[in-house]
Design brief:
There is one protein chain. By secondary structure, the chain is of the alpha+beta class. It is built from ten helices and ten strands. The strands form three sheets. The chain has a four-stranded mixed sheet with strand order 1-4-5-8. Its cofactor is FAD. Keywords: FAD, Flavoprotein, Oxidoreductase.
């Protein structure tokens, strides 16, 4: 609500004053210029807070990098620079109702050539922040024949334009923030990112970094749940002693510690692959699956240790549980990554 927005704005101003704003963004975009290796431990710390990346401006990294690399001068001036100044946030629209998000070939939203540019028609859902964003980057089909990998393009669409309509907010396990949108809107040529047919390549760039950033922030959330569990085990007394004395719960501590450590090692391997410019598909896919599973397992144990209280909003655990469950689906379900990684590992033996 308005009170929350005012608090968040004050935190963002404080971050700017303390030179903590947008640390992973390039310096020419007003950021701190940290590369992903330098930013990784900070990303994990930011992830411990629900609003850490937004309060510190690092959640702009994906959209700022994408627009900086691929946008026309018109888009840079109209959307990129105001976004960096905090005057207009981004959103991204790829998946569609009735179409598996892991299969781009099933997407039906189209951008059709007109005399003055393009006309975008279709529906998207799971479009984060659509209600508050200044623009949405939309994945559109621009070709119906030829190489399917070059059948899609990306367009920057203003959210205040006639023909951009929010159909509904989608509740996800009881929480909001995701939207279904309908589009029937003309856009000029200069709203195209890159060249026609380069959409999936640009999305691939975004996903490799985005999945790795999610892993880093999930590590922060797993550590938060782990710390809550340890605190509860130490402070809660039952049947004459603390829960920490119960031997059965020692396995919770060990397993959670081991799973977080393994997920962290795999995530930092993915960071290294990105920074070095190597093929990231095995490293990122493995980190994404293992880190999502670790978060889910650690949060579940923490809830078990808290008992009935862990099911209530008196603790952050229900929110962490929602994040943990969606983690195994967002940016590609576990099954997709497992199959993709396994096939590549098998292919390397030939």
């Amino acid at each position: 609500g308005p009170d929350g927005a005012a608090v968040l704005s004050a935190l963002q101003d404080a971050a700017r004053d303390a030179d903590l704003w947008a640390l992973p963004l390039p310096t020419h975009l007003g950021g701190g210029g940290l590369d992903l290796t330098e930013y990784a431990p900070l990303a994990e710390m930011e992830g411990r807070s629900d609003f850490g990346p937004t309060a510190l401006g690092s959640d702009l990294l994906l959209d700022a990098t994408m627009l900086d690399r691929h946008a026309t001068e018109t888009i840079r001036e109209r959307y990129l620079l105001p976004m960096l100044a905090g005057r207009g946030g981004p959103s991204f629209a790829m998946t569609e109702p009735g179409a598996p998000g892991s299969d781009p070939a099933a997407l039906t939203t189209t951008a059709t050539r007109t005399g003055e540019g393009w006309r975008i028609t279709g529906r998207k859902w799971f479009t984060s922040r659509a209600a508050s964003a200044a623009f949405t980057t939309v994945v559109c089909r621009t070709a119906t024949s030829g190489d399917p990998r070059r059948a899609f393009s990306l367009f920057v669409v203003p959210t205040d334009a006639p023909g951009y309509r929010i159909r509904r907010e989608i509740p996800v396990l009881g929480a909001g923030g995701q939207y279904e949108i309908a589009l029937d809107i003309p856009v000029a040529d200069d709203h195209l990112l890159g060249a026609p047919g380069e959409g999936l390549r640009i999305v691939g760039e975004r996903l490799a970094v985005g999945r790795t950033l999610r892993c880093l922030r999930w590590l922060g959330q797993a550590h938060r749940a782990y710390a809550l569990m340890l605190s509860r085990m130490t402070d809660r007394h039952t049947h004459g002693g603390p829960l920490a004395d119960k031997q059965l719960l020692h396995a919770y501590v060990f397993d959670s510690h081991a799973e977080i450590a393994a997920a962290r090692a795999l995530t930092h391997a993915a960071v290294a692959a990105l920074v070095d410019g190597r093929d990231t598909r095995v490293a990122v896919g493995t980190a994404k699956v293992v880190t999502a599973r670790a978060l889910h397992a650690v949060v579940d144990r923490a809830i078990q240790v808290y008992g009935a209280e862990g099911l209530t909003d008196d603790t952050p655990l229900p929110m962490l549980a929602r994040t943990a469950r969606t983690a195994r689906i967002l940016d590609g379900p576990d099954e997709l990554h497992i199959t993709t990684v396994a096939r590549r590992l098998l292919a390397e033996r030939h």
